[in-house]
Write a structure and sequence with these properties.
This protein has twelve helices and twelve strands. It is an alpha/beta fold and 302 residues long. The strands form two sheets. It has a seven-stranded mixed β-sheet, with helices on both faces. Strands 7-9-8-11-12 form a five-stranded mixed β-sheet, sandwiched between helices. Helix 3 packs parallel to helix 5 and helix 8 (188-200) packs across helix 12. The radius of gyration is 19 Å and the shape is globular.
Length: 302
């Protein structure tokens, strides 16, 4: 679905150029279709970003592909300086972010990327829940004049998403008065399970797919804090700088307080293994997270 969308978009608009730093997993069929508008720079993420910025200055819209860890960290200075400062429409497709890098060790784990990317002025940051959500969001993301970082998730959809995506707007799956779960990206799949288990335990549960992390839907966060006894943030990211930090910043900015339970990686990388084993070992399965939330609700007497 992703490759088909990108192919059709590029064929319909000659401004689009597809680039990769020898990471063709998402775009392996496009070289034959796009010809000179497909550029593989080799394992040179920094070079790729510099070239992408140059192309953007000349009216092109580069969609660049690399492993999340290398795109967000190895090429950071080039993203910040060449794309961010100049506010160029360089679109970053970040492959295997968070837990999706499963069997890879810390060098290949992008679990600080949201923090890094949202710190760049002009940079937009997005995290689709699955491939259906991804292809719903991308046309509008690619159509903005800003640089954008997208945490690519091509997992099969477990939920029929709202197709009326707007930049800066969250997808409200449900509203609840006991607990509201805020989540983004791949962890949405497990959050659905968590929410269902909590409902089976008699809890009124809200679930929000944040989708757009910068700009973020502050109104959705504020409403959740006002109507729910407990806010839960779930993310395959470090505790610092991601959704938990975004929620804290939003509440402080609006002179609000709330009971917030963060479920994130706290000062640690995850143990590499198969994806299901990673979730189990780190305590991020839907069942494990539901149990943690219920424990906190009891201790808070919610």
């Amino acid at each position: 679905m992703y490759e088909e969308l990108l192919k059709n978009t590029a064929l319909a608009d000659e401004r689009f150029v597809v680039m990769t730093a020898e990471n063709r997993a998402l775009v392996r069929n496009l070289p034959a279709v796009l010809g000179k508008r497909f550029i593989d720079t080799g394992i040179t993420e920094q070079t790729m970003l510099g070239a992408a910025a140059g192309l953007a200055l000349r009216g092109r819209i580069p969609v660049v592909h690399a492993l999340s860890a290398f795109l967000s960290m190895r090429a950071f200075e080039f993203i910040r300086t060449d794309a961010g400062i100049a506010n160029l429409p360089v679109k970053l497709s970040s492959f295997i972010p968070g837990f999706l890098s499963d069997g890879n060790g810390p060098t290949h784990q992008a679990i600080e990327d949201v923090s890094i990317m949202r710190g760049i002025p002009n940079m937009q940051v997005f995290a689709p829940a699955d491939e259906s959500d991804l292809v719903t969001m991308l046309p509008k993301i690619w159509n903005t004049p800003n640089p954008a970082y997208v945490r690519i998730c091509t997992r099969p959809a477990k939920y029929q998403h709202d197709t009326n995506f707007e930049i800066g707007k969250a997808e409200i799956i449900s509203e609840g008065t006991d607990v509201t779960i805020l989540v983004y990206g791949f962890m949405f799949e497990q959050a659905l399970i968590t929410a269902e288990i909590l409902r089976e335990q008699g809890k009124s549960v809200g679930l929000i797919n944040m989708r757009s992390l910068k700009p973020v839907d502050e109104k959705a966060i504020i409403k959740a804090a006002q109507q729910s006894d407990l806010i839960v943030t779930i993310e395959d990211h470090f505790l610092t700088g991601g959704l938990y930090s975004i929620v804290a910043e939003t509440l402080l900015k609006n002179r609000m307080t709330a009971d917030v339970l963060p479920i994130a990686l706290n000062e640690k990388w995850f143990k590499p293994a198969r994806l299901n084993e990673v979730l189990e070992y780190e305590g991020f399965t839907g069942k494990q997270m539901a149990e943690k939330i219920l424990e906190v609700a009891v201790s808070y007497q919610l």
